[in-house]
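User: Can you help me understand a structure? I only have the sequence.
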Amino acid sequence: MENNVINNYLSIQQNIKKNFKSQKNVNIISVSKTFPQEKILPLIKYGNIHFGENKVQEAQAKWIDFKKEYSHVKLHMIGKLQSNKAKNAVQLFDYIHTLDNQKLSDKLSEAEIKFHQKRKYFIQVNLGNENQKSGINMSLVDQFYTYCTKELDLNVIGLMAIPPQDNNTEKNFKELYELNMSLGLEELSMGMSSDYIKALKYKATYLRIGSAIFGSRN
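Assistant: Let's start by predicting it. Here is the structure, written out as tokens:
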């Protein structure tokens, strides 16, 4: 099992190098949500730095002790974050990919001040303006970015999106890349197990990969 996880991770690394030799700034976030510590530990020991979780409570149970022992590891919040969990998130996560409304941004700012922490943020964009999905409407991203960075001094490093399932994945990645560029942002969180190669064509710098590394979830 340990070897499978590491081999899967290596395979993705090799795939990226083979297809995108010129892209140096590519970070693989191993999405460890629902997987136990014993399946994560071999990857930490192998040298993977970035891990993703989508629930604060689960992450607390798994990562508080891990992060004491492996302080170089960077933990990414990639799931929907409720504003009442902002304090806990700021204390545990290094990156938050799902900054998607003003109330949440206000609470995160308050938590940063309270705990004397600065975190890195991605604004989640709702590319298809889908009612069932979180994220800022594309037409409002500029305004929200200005609010977060100028009014709250949040360190927004890039945009993030989960594309709609409309068979226009590349078109959606291109739109997010262009929007990211228009804001002058250097980091871009897009691409998962099934579409990370397409995401890399549009300069993704953080890939959120779960099942292709850890296998299918129960």
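Now, to help you interpret it: The two ends are 15 Å apart (CA to CA). The first strand starts at residue 27 and ends at 31. Let me know which part you'd like to focus on.
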